[in-house]
Design goal:
The structure holds two protein chains of two kinds. Chain A is mostly beta strands. By secondary structure, chain B is mostly beta strands. The chains are: A mainly beta, B mainly beta. The interface between A and B is medium-sized, with 24 and 25 residues.
């Protein structure tokens, strides 16, 4: 298993600003992902964070809005840029060893409110 | 198209009663199946998973799930619900590759 720590756990931000969320895994993992969970909704995959290369974004998400870094096998960041109230969500980091027969582990999430 | 469905948005059960949460998927082959639980303000915790073999799988906290290929279902069950089981439950599926697809979730309320 993997233990995932996210920082900050919550934040209230002004519109137009940016917030960087950090995700630290206690062991080396092959795959890291970022999800968004809007109020009362399920999880939507934003992107796969690739170590040493650009992240792979899902439809509807772009690098300029959600830049992602992954400098090594245990750490990733997600930045929510030029925030608007519509970006108010829970952002979850997920990690796993990859392969269809493995599970994913999740951080506790970052609850973001944009005012 | 590949999809996963949780038909029940919200379920209320009495403490001590049995529980079944439904999950259906659409896919041409057998996917990899998971149930996660999310308590308020928390991340997701894995309850159980099915990859192959015995179609009845046991998980943590007294939960079990049964994979039924003929019905494309992977329903979660618990014989006796505790008040601490109140949470949001997500069925997740992995078809190919590494991406998870999550159902819309079922919110469970437990009444005394």
């Amino acid at each position: 298993s993997a233990v995932i720590s996210q920082k900050p756990s919550r934040d209230i931000c002004q519109r137009g600003t940016s917030l960087t969320i950090q995700c630290q895994v206690d062991s080396q993992v092959t795959m890291m992902f970022w999800y968004r969970q809007q109020p009362g909704q399920s999880l939507t995959l934003i992107a796969t964070a690739n170590q040493g290369s650009e992240a792979t974004y899902e439809s509807g998400f772009v690098i300029d809005k959600f830049p992602i870094s992954r400098p090594n096998l245990t750490f990733s960041t997600l930045t929510v840029s030029n925030m608007s109230p519509e970006d108010s969500s829970i952002y979850l980091c997920s990690a796993g060893q990859g392969g269809t027969n493995t599970e994913a582990f999740f951080g506790q999430g970052t609850r973001l409110t944009v005012v | 198209a590949q999809s996963v469905t949780q038909p029940d948005i919200h379920i209320t059960v009495s403490e001590g009663a049995s529980l079944e949460l439904r999950c259906n998927y659409s896919y041409g082959a057998t996917p990899y199946l998971f149930w996660y639980v999310q308590s308020p303000g928390q991340g997701l915790q894995l309850l159980l998973k099915y990859f192959s073999g015995d179609t009845l799988v046991q998980g943590i906290k007294g939960f079990e799930a049964e994979f039924k290929r003929s019905q494309s279902s992977f329903n979660l069950r618990k014989p006796s619900v505790h008040w601490s089981d109140a949470a949001e439950y997500f069925c997740a599926v992995r078809f190919t590759g590494n991406q998870f697809y999550f159902g819309t979730g079922t919110s469970l309320t437990v009444i005394p």
